[in-house]
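Case study: PspA/IM30 family protein.
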Amino acid sequence: MFKMFKRVKTVMSSELNSLLDKAEDPVKMLDQFMREMAEDIREAETAVAKQMANEKIMYKKYNDAQKLAEKREQQAIKALEAGDEDLARRALQDKKQHESQAETLKTAWEGAKADVSELKQKLQEMKNEYQEMDLKRDSLKARAESAKTKTKINRAMSSIGSDDSKRGFERMEEKVLRFEAEAETSEDMRSANRTLDDELEALEKNSVDDELAELKKKLGKE
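Here is what the predicted structure looks like once written out:
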């Protein structure tokens, strides 16, 4: 009788988590488990098929021995009817041998039949467990991928809030403030230059007005 999942029995136990912890890649480890379980099922199917063939052979031998015993009985009757008692006796002796063989073969056949029934049940249990593990594999793979994604996001977020990042932002802020100060200073300088020009223009205008007033005075226009 085959052993159920002989290579991956630990998968069905509490040792699964420790195996996954030690595995370099949990997803690959789970896939490996499933491949081994599938191979165990194939081996079990082969064993069941062989046992079913053996059960059929045992039944055929038992049936043949039983039929031959019945045939020898009919032949003994015919021998007696023909008046050949010796032939009838030998036919009955042969009949007893075949009946004994049939009884032995019947016991072997019934045992093989019981084995086939048990193996079929075990094989179905293996297939059911495989399906359950397949669903669990999908769930664990999804959890593993989710954990990897969360780890990446957490690492990215931790790097954003790191001291190096803060210092980098502070340096950039200082540069922006410096640019703004330089722009404001240049605007002040431009305003200052514009005021000086206005004052000079006003001064020049005043001197012309004074000169015009002087001419008017000379001409008696005032």
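For the exam, be able to explain this: The mean pLDDT is 79.
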